[in-house]
Amino acid sequence: MNYSLPADDAWTSSSYSQGNGGECVEWAPAHAALTGQVLLRDSKTPHAPHLTLTPESFAGLVSLAKARG
Hints:
By secondary structure, this protein is α+β, with helices and mostly antiparallel strands. It is about 35% helix and about 20% strand.
């Protein structure tokens, strides 16, 4: 299936980003629920290219980020 990118208001930033000036990564949870694709983008450059991950890859990325702090 081919889906368009979510609107800007459909992206949310991580709780870490919200506490640090909002300059981090954002993801589109509704898109992930609908398609199974986890989209990530840089909050400072929202119209730049984004990453598309599987839920398993996203979970691994989150685990790595938590471990490296």
